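> @MW can you paste both from yesterday?
MW: sure, first one:
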Amino acid sequence: MAVPKRKMSRANTRARRSQWKATLPTLVACPRCTRAKRPHAACGFCGTYDGRTVIEVGPQA
C-alpha cells in the first residue's frame, strides 16, 4: 500500500480542500406555473413535466 513520504503541511491541505465548495442547484422556470424547478424533472408544485400531468398534487395552502 502506498504511504506518503512526508507529512502534508496544513497550508497545502487547506489549499486543496478550498475547492470542496458546494454549488447551488440549477433552476429553471416551470412553463405552466412559472415557479422554480430542477431541469428535466417534474414540477413539485403543479405536477407537470413536458406539458402533461405526471404527479397528482393536492391543494396548496
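MW: second:
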Amino acid sequence: MSAPLILAIDQGTTNTKALLVTADGAVIASASAPMTVSYPQSGWAEQSATDLWQSVRTVINQLAVHPEAGRIAALAISNQRESVIVWDRATGAPVGPCVIWQCRRTSAACEALIAAGHNDLVERTTGLAINPLFPASKIAWLLDRAPGGRAAAAAGRLAAGTVDSWLLWNLTGGAVHATDHSNAARTQLFDTRRLAWSDELLDLFGVPPSLLPAVGSSDSRFGVTAAGATALPAGIPIHAMVGDSHAALFGHGVRTPGFVKATYGTGTSLMSLVPTPIRSGHGLSGTIAWSLGGKVSYAIEGNISVSGQTAAFMAELLGVADASALGDLAASVPDSHSVVFVPALVGLGAPWWRNDVRGEITGLALGTKPAHVARAAIEAIAFQVADVLAAIEADIGAPLAGLSVDGGASRNDLLMQFQADIIGKPVQRGSVAELSAVGAAAIAGIGLGLGDRGGAAAQRVFTPAIDAATRQGHLDRWAAAIAHILSTGR
C-alpha cells in the first residue's frame, strides 16, 4: 500500500495555503491563494466568509490533480484564530462578514463589560482578559445587526464558529458543526478547566448556546469530505483542526514546557507550554495549546496585533514594491538613525492591550531618509516580540534560553539578526517557514495512528552581535516611544 499523504490547509489572514505532506513531515507540493481584508471604518477589519471558503476550495482543487493525490489519507486544518462567522444552517450562507481577529468594532461593548466588573470572571474562566480581539463580543455584534438575527438564533436556524468550524461545515456539506479545544479556548466563551462552553459567559456576552459547535480533541476525526464540496472524492476524513499559532508550536516539536516559539505572520504569536492553566500577571493570555486523544496541553501566549503586516504597510506608505523590497531598503543603512515606529495600527496587543492608541513615528530629523524609516519598521517587529518575550519570562519566573521562529517574516535575515540582538538570545529558524500547516499535518498523522514524528530541526541560528550598552540604548528608545503613545491615548 502506498504511504499516506495528508493535505494540510493553513487558512490565514492574507493568504490561504495547502500542502501535501508525507508521514515524516516532508512537503511534496503546495498551493496558495491570496486573501483580501477590508477596513470599512477605523479600527474595523473584516473578510468575506464566502471568499474565504472559495480560497480554500481553490488550493484544495489545485492539489487534487497532483499525481500523488490518490494517496491523500486525511485533511488537516490550521486557521487564523479569533475570526468569527455566523451563517444560516439551512442555506449555508453567511449572515454578515467574517469579523477577523484584528477588528476592534466591539471596543465600546468590551469596555462597558470591564467597567461593570466582569473581567475577573472572564479571565478566571478562560485565561483571557476581555478584549475585542476575541469572538465573544463579535458574535453578539453580528446577531444584533443581521436582519432578524436574534430571532433566527433563538429558533436554532443560525450557526456560529471560528474559521475552522466554517471550513469543516463546508467540507462536509453542512453535516458537521464542530471545533477543537485550541480554537474553542480563544472564543472567550469556553471554560478551559471544565472543557465546556460556559453558561455564565454565554449569558454575559449575549450568545445563545444553540449557535455553538461541538468541541473535540485536536486530533479527532471531525468528519469526512462531501461529494462536490471540492475536487477531492467524498469520504476523506478531516482528522485535525487546530489554531495556526498552536499548530506552529506543535510543528516546532514542542511537547513540554520551557520552550518559546514566535510565528511572524500578519500579527505575531509567542507561545510556550505550561504545566497547568495559567493566569498571566503581565498582559498575556492563558490558553489551551492542543488536545490529543482527550488529553489537554496548556500554554501561555502573547498576541501582537500588527507584526509582519508592519513591513507591508510601510512598503505601501513609502511607495516601495513590497515587504521584501522594504527589507532591502532597510538593509541599506546600518541603523534607523534614532527613528522609532510604533505600529499600533489597530491599537496595541500584548502586553499593553490598548485599543485606543494609534501608530506613531518618532525621532525624525533633517538627516532622516526613507531607508531609516524602513529600518524602523523592520525593527518595530522585533521590539514588540522582545516585550512579549520579557512578559513570558516574568510570568513563568525563569529566563528563557532563546527563541524558535517561523512564519513569512522570519525569512528576513535582517529582522532575525536584529531580533537576536535585541533580546540578547539566540534565534533559531527552521527550513520550513510555514509551520502551521506542517504542525496540523503532524496532528492528523497522530489521529491516523502514524505516531508523533517530532518537529522541524533548526536550519540557521542567529546569535546576538551587539554589546549590552548598544542593546539597552535601542530598548530605551523603544520604551520611550511606547510610553509616549500610551500617554496620548484617551
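> thanks! Residues 180 and 216 are 5 Å apart (CA to CA).
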